[in-house]
Every structure is written in C-alpha cells, then in structure tokens.
Design a protein that fits this description.
70% helix
C-alpha cells in the first residue's frame, strides 16, 4: 500500500506473513482512529448517488488485472519486472494517466537526493529497538517517510522498528507523507481557507503520531 513498505519488504527479504503480523497492530489502531473520527453527525444527501452509476470500461478492467500481476510480483510469484507492464500499458492506451503534478513529484525526488547525500556524510549504527523506531519517525517529519525508509535502512538491521518508525512518521508534519502533500494541494486548489486546514491537519496528525508512538512502545519496546 505504501512505497516504503515495498522497499522494506524487499530490502530485508521478508516473508509476507512476518511483514503483515508486524504491522498489523499499527493498521488496527489506525483503522480504529479513522472510524472514531469519521462517526459524527452530518446531513448526507444521496440523491446524486442514486441517479448516477459507475461502470468500468476495458481499460479499468485491464488495470484490475495488472494490479493482480503487481500483487503476484510483490509476493515473488512472478518476476518483479512484471510491474513494468503497467507503464507500457499506460503509454499505449492511457496517456492521460501521466497528467500528474510533476512539480510535486520533483519535490519528492529532491528528498531522495537530500537523503542520499546525508548517507555519504553520516556513518552510524542503530541497534536499540526504541532508537531504531524513533529516529525514522522523527526524521520522516523533515525528509518524508519514503526517503526516510531508504536513509535509515542503511543504519539498522531492525526492520520491525524501521517499518513502524516510517509508518508512524507518516503522521505529524505535512511533509511526513507524500499523500499528505497531495491532499493539501488538492484542498488548496478548491478553497482559500488554507490556514484552518493546516491547523486542524497538524492537530489531528500529531495526536495520531503520539498514539502511534505509544502503540509501538506497548507492542515492542518492552
């Protein structure tokens, strides 16, 4: 589901069951928080939903099939290079999918350059489970969690702590996760009330960040 998960999964040569069992408590707590925040009184209109319907065309069904191939590649059932079929398919049949926010992508790639330079300067070994969790979690607040995963993977063999660190690190600051930056840019394009969004965003996210830290300590750092 997240690029940093895929990187950690392949970098440490993990078994799918071990990976899922390790991150399952985080997923459970995150889901509980989402459900708690979602259940509030609101007037919902379903008229438009009743009058509209969505149907997948052949391109949509093709992407579903390609997604299945991608899952098989992640599970190491088919070669990882199979994922390249998606790019080839999009180039031939769905070039509109390349109409993305290239500036945001370039900004994200700049984080990779930043972390790559840091790797050449810093030489440390992180063995303590709590430190191997906290450093990626806090570092993600500055460099984002995907570059953070690539950066700290060179300094620790504790993949469980790293996985939790970059997962929890996705909460907190706006740059903690690329998804947060994307959601902010989408919101900013449709409204002028950006300050209120940022305030509420950081309040909720740092509360979730604290919950994530507490959950890791309860589950692993004992």
């Amino acid at each position: 589901g997240n690029p940093q998960n895929i990187f950690i999964y392949f970098h440490y040569h993990l078994h799918p069951v071990a990976f899922v069992k390790t991150i399952a408590p985080f997923c459970g707590v995150s889901l509980a928080c989402i459900l708690f925040l979602s259940f509030k009184k609101a007037d919902l209109s379903v008229e438009n939903c009743r009058n509209s319907s969505m149907k997948l065309n052949w391109v949509g069904y093709s992407y579903l099939a390609l997604f299945g191939c991608f899952i098989l590649a992640i599970l190491k059932i088919v070669p990882l290079a199979t994922g390249g079929i998606v790019i080839i398919f999009a180039l031939i049949f769905d070039r509109e999918s390349f109409n993305i926010d290239w500036f945001l992508l370039a900004t994200f790639l700049a984080f990779f350059g930043f972390t790559d330079n840091l790797e050449k300067i810093i030489h440390i070994s992180i063995n303590n489970p709590l430190e191997a969790f906290l450093y990626p979690a806090l570092g993600s607040q500055i460099m984002s969690n995907v570059p953070g995963a690539l950066f700290f993977a060179d300094f620790t063999s504790n993949w469980k702590a790293l996985l939790w660190g970059v997962s929890v690190g996705g909460f907190g600051s706006l740059v903690g996760s690329l998804a947060s930056l994307i959601s902010y840019r989408l919101y900013r394009a449709k409204t002028e009330n950006q300050n209120r969004y940022l305030v509420k965003f950081h309040i909720y996210n740092y509360v979730l960040f604290a919950i994530g830290v507490a959950t890791y300590i309860l589950c692993f750092a004992r």
